[in-house]
Amino acid sequence: MDHFTYKNDALHAEDVAIADIAAAVGTPFYVYSHATLTRHAQVFTESLKSVKPLICFAVKANSNIAVLKTLAAQGLGADVVSEGELRRALAAGIVPSKVVFSGVGKTRSEMKFALEAGIHQFNVESDRELIALNEVAGSLGKKAPIALRVNPDVDAKTHAKISTGKKENKFGIDIDDAPRIYAIAQSLPHLDVQGVSVHIGSQLTELAPFRAAYARVRTLVESLRASGINIRTIDLGGGLGVPYATDDAPPPPAEYGALVAEMFGDFGAEFIFEPGRLICGNAGILVTEVLYVKQASHTYVIVDAGMNDLMRPALYDAVHGIVPVRIGKAPSAVVNVVGPVCESTDVFLKNIDMPLPHEGDLLAFRTAGAYGASLSNTYNSRLLIPEVMVKGAEFSVIRPRLSYADMLALEVTPEWI
Ligand code: LLP
Description:
This protein is an alpha/beta fold. It has helices at residues 18-25, 34-47, 65-72, 83-91, 108-117, 127-139, 178-187, 208-226, 253-264, 277-280, 312-316, 404-409, and strands at 4-7, 10-13, 16-17, 29-33, 54-58, 77-80, 99-101, 121-124, 144-151, 173-174, 191-197, 233-235, 270-273, 284-295, 299-303, 322-324, 332-338, 347-355, 362-365, 387-391, 394-399.
């Protein structure tokens, strides 16, 4: 459920008319609903209450500091994958003791920064990374709290480009090899081996892959404990999907929570989760204006948002539903909705039936709050677009549109050119 609804045929975010935001900030822009973010954080927390979870929001899904602050107020911590994300989490007031650091390629300077901040856990993905982290921690006179991220060789049954839990993916340590790597970790003096972590992919629409992965993790923890390694934290990752189209039906958080309780309810450990999309996906929309309706082999609705603003359709064949900001009486037509970027992949929707818009009409892409703004870029020298947060009847720009002056000022031309 979200708080983007029609009132008198006009799309609103909570109590604010989207058209009013468009008039104030121009198009395109992202808009997030504070109430939706808060609700999702609460629903997910509630669904896992049997294991008293530490929920570390995956910052990569939406890294805006106002969003992070909204989630921090609900008790969420952060799952970060870079120093930049860690700095954002800290700037949002997330305490370091609620931060886990994931990723296959942490640099030594990122390790140092995170150790000095005093984060809760490094999720380490290789023996080489263990050795580097041990050295960095030693040089600071500290012990790094670590979990090993294991790769359980489970097919997440999601899009190949967002699947991480199969042997052939670059992520994690082969679960069959994990006991050997844990033994190495135990022997390194500047590491505190505290946990295990797993994350098999994103936008999962079935529970079975979670069940398979978690069963393997459970067996591993039992055998590590039996061999004297004190596993105290179990990080079960993120990945639960959200409905993008009306016929998508990912399992609700309550069913996921019941699975976790069934599989780990009797396990004494701290349970960590790293949801991203589930928390912020349908808390955001992308609003765009129709520039032209072009009649060619197809009817093209050319909008002012491009693949640089919302990359998911071009990258993962993702389908983001589109709705009018004002419901009118236009006859419906079969159209392709495309952006202005000079790439054939700059297509949002193909052959969809929608009321034929006119130039100047506003449209909104739904479920754009996760991996929308955070994946956006300035390709074609287009400006990063604004992000807006709505709370009740108020709205605020939480990241302004960059200016052309800012864009040009970043670059330096050497004298010898
Ligand atoms: N934990 C780790 C270690 C991850 O790699 C990810 C996502 C998450 C948690 C959060 O997953 P979520 O709950 O959001 O599914 N850009 C792609 C998704 C890439 C996901 C990368 N890792 C997309 O737009 O679909």
